[in-house]
Structure formats: structure tokens, C-alpha cells
Design brief:
Layout: H1 7-16, H2 23-45, E1 54-58, E2 64-66, H3 67-80, E3 86-91, E4 98-99, E5 109-117, E6 128-136, E7 158-164, E8 168-173, E9 179-184, E10 189-194, E11 205-207, H4 218-228, E12 240-241, H5 247-257, E13 260-263, E14 276-277, H6 278-291, E15 295-297, E16 314-315, E17 317-320, H7 322-333
Parallel strand pairs: 3-5, 11-12, 11-13
Antiparallel strand pairs: 1-2, 3-4, 5-6, 6-7, 7-8, 8-9, 9-10, 13-17, 14-16, 15-17
Helix pairs in contact: 1-2, 2-3, 4-7
The chain binds 2,5-anhydro-1,6-di-O-phosphono-D-glucitol and manganese (II) ion (2 copies).
Length: about 325
């Protein structure tokens, strides 16, 4: 049997052999993985650890925070603030950026995260996760400000997520394809379980919250209606549907066997471009999907090319198997 490759070894080799990641970035990714391990432990304990239920506070989006949203946020901050690899962090659960305190050295990276994705699934024991994105602080500026974070997703230097499901799996890209690592609880380390992840270009599986159908725009309605017509409709094949309501778990399925995921703009909040957040959810997931041969757009343009205007900006998301994403995007162009 070939030796097991730990995340640590994988990262060292990416640094040493391929020169793909500088040492500080390697350290940063190790720390994020360690934080995910700790979050995974808390998730596993569930009711026994007193981590279920609501915290009765609201985040900047007006969403009620769950206890685990806050615990995961704190774990990520505490793990990352002292290592010297970061200048600042930004989180879906914090109104403003978190600058590394003066008592610690400041590094050159910026870390963004959705500490706990799929909050509505926490209490019902369904897969949830952590999503993260790493940017470089623009050179030349003294200190660090919110505007330093406002970089297009194409400028990410690392992105990934950790899904807490039947297994805890960390999925990572540093721009050289997508690798998956499964948490070996006995060893306490992530072990490489898949490299060069590829998404099939075609699919017969779509993921969207169908209860919002009446609120969608015409192009998304058209696409889904055509899928529903199956062999009798213009697509000439039957489609299957999945909706986990945890983006991490839906994206993980797509990276594993293909599919298309959509959380489009809808009429419930007409002034907002969508529900999902550009910097914490759409950008890291879009990069992973592209690195695995898929595509990601907001219906009009590539998500990774969007210049963010503000930290907590929302966006319409269509991602997954390339030919399906192209099709939905082309329906938008025709209207
Ligand atoms: P979060 O828990 O970080 O707020 O994200 C939840 C997101 C995403 O994970 C999921 O795809 C979507 O919200 C589910 O939304 P609906 O409940 O509207 O289906
Ligand atoms: Mn989320
Ligand atoms: Mn969240």
C-alpha cells in the first residue's frame, strides 16, 4: 500500500517541489485545517457539548445566529490571530474586519470565512461546513482596511471548505487543481483521499430551492421547467433533484459526481443580488469548481471576475458542470 499522505506533507511538497505556496501560506492553511478539526469536534458532540440551538443574536445580514455560528467564528479567530501569517480576517458573522491585534506580528495574508455554512441543518444532524478564502494584502499600504479585502475572486491564493458530514473532509485549492483530505480521527490528521478532482461537463442532477420558483426570473424558470419535463421535453432526458440547504454539502456532491447548483436572485428581496455572499461563499466555491473543470457565473458574468463593492455583498450563484452552467447563462443573455 502506498504511504498515506497527510495534509502537512501535501502542503510541504506543494511548497518545496512545486513552489506553489510560500511558507506563510502553508502555515496559514495548516492553522485553518487545525481550526476545522476543532469545529468538527464541537459539531460531533452536538447536544452533549451544549452547542446546538440559537444564540439569539443577529448578524449583519439580519439572520439569527446559532450557537455554532459563533463558536466556529471564535475558533477560527483564536487559531489564526497569533501565528504571524495574517494581517486581518473577515467573516460572515462579523460586521467589520478583524485586524490582527498589535501584540502579534502581522503577516501579508487576508483570511475570509463563512465559519458555519448550513446553519439551518445544525440542529437536525445534517452535513454542515466551514468555507474559507485567502487573499494577499495589497502591497504598499500601511495598516489594513476593509478596502484591502475588496478584490475579485480571481485574485484568491487559496480557497477551500471543510464539510462536517458522515466524514469530515477538507477540500482545497491553491490554483493547482482540487485535492480532498479526510479526517483520520485516530491519527488526528487530514489524509489525502483524492487528487485532481474533475467535474463531468454534463449532468442530469440539479440543486435549487424549488419553493422559491414563483419568485425567480424567467431564465432560471425556463431552465428548471425544461429539466422537469424530462424525456418529454427539449432536454430529452430525465433529471434528478437534490437540495441539502448547506452549500458545502451541495458543492461537495457536485465535486464528487457532477451537477448544477443555483441560488439565483429572486423577487423576495429585489434590491439584493441574491442570498449567498460573494466573498465568503461564492468566490471560494467558484474557484474550487473552476479548478475542477466546472464553471460558475451569476447568470451574466463569471463570478471570479466580479469586483466587490462591499465586504458583505451578495450575489446570484450558478455553478457546477460546465455545459449546464453555460446553458443557464445563455438563457440570461437572450432576455
Ligand atoms: P449560512 O448557514 O452560512 O447562512 O448559509 C446557508 C446558505 C447555503 O449554505 C444554502 O445553500 C442556503 O443558504 C440555503 O438556503 P435556503 O434555506 O433558502 O434553502
Ligand atoms: Mn453559508
Ligand atoms: Mn454561515
Amino acid at each position: 500500500m502506498p504511504p498515506k499522505i497527510s495534509l502537512t506533507r501535501y502542503l510541504v511538497e506543494q511548497q518545496r517541489v512545486d513552489g506553489l505556496i510560500p511558507e506563510q501560506l502553508r502555515l496559514l492553511l495548516e492553522v485553518v485545517a487545525r481550526a476545522c478539526k476543532s469545529i468538527s469536534q464541537a459539531v460531533n458532540k452536538g447536544a452533549l457539548g451544549g452547542v446546538l440551538g440559537t444564540a439569539n443574536t443577529e448578524n449583519v445580514q439580519g439572520e439569527i445566529q446559532k450557537k455554532l455560528d459563533i463558536i466556529a467564528n471564535e475558533v477560527l479567530i483564536e487559531a489564526n490571530e497569533w501565528g504571524g501569517h495574517l494581517a486581518a480576517m473577515a467573516s460572515e458573522e462579523m460586521d467589520t474586519i478583524y485586524v490582527v491585534p498589535n501584540r502579534y506580528p502581522q503577516g501579508e495574508y487576508l483570511l475570509l470565512f463563512d465559519p458555519l455554512d448550513g446553519s439551518s441543518n445544525i440542529d437536525v444532524n445534517v452535513s454542515i461546513g466551514t468555507i474559507f478564502s485567502v487573499l494577499k494584502k495589497p502591497e504598499g499600504d500601511a495598516g489594513v482596511q476593509e478596502k484591502d479585502f475588496l478584490q475579485a475572486g480571481a485574485r484568491q491564493v487559496a480557497a477551500g471548505y471543510c464539510v462536517y458530514g458522515p466524514q469530515t473532509t477538507l477540500v482545497l485549492t491553491v490554483g493547482d487543481g482540487v485535492a480532498m483530505f479526510t479526517l483520520d480521527r485516530e491519527q488526528g490528521s487530514f489524509v489525502l483521499t483524492q487528487e485532481d478532482v474533475r467535474i463531468p461537463e454534463d449532468t442530469k442532477e440539479f440543486a435549487i430551492n424549488m419553493s422559491n420558483m414563483r419568485h425567480w426570473d424567467a431564465p432560471v424558470k425556463r431552465y428548471v421547467e425544461e429539466c422537469l419535463q424530462g424525456t418529454e421535453g427539449p432536454r430529452g432526458k430525465d433529471f434528478n433533484m437534490r437540495w441539502i440547504a448547506s452549500m458545502v454539502a451541495d458543492v461537495h456532491r457536485i465535486l464528487t459526481r457532477g451537477g448544477i447548483f443555483m441560488y439565483p436572485w429572486d423577487k423576495r428581496e429585489p434590491d439584493k443580488p441574491g442570498k449567498l455572499r460573494l466573498m465568503y461563499e461564492a468566490n471560494p466555491m467558484s474557484w474550487l469548481i473552476e479548478q475542477a473543470g466546472g464553471a460558475a457565473t451569476n447568470g451574466r458574468q463569471r463570478i471570479l471576475d466580479i469586483q466587490p463593492g462591499k465586504l458583505h455583498e451578495r450575489v446570484s450563484v450558478i455553478l457546477g458542470s460546465k455545459n449546464e452552467v453555460k446553458r443557464v447563462t445563455s438563457y440570461h443573455a437572450k432576455l
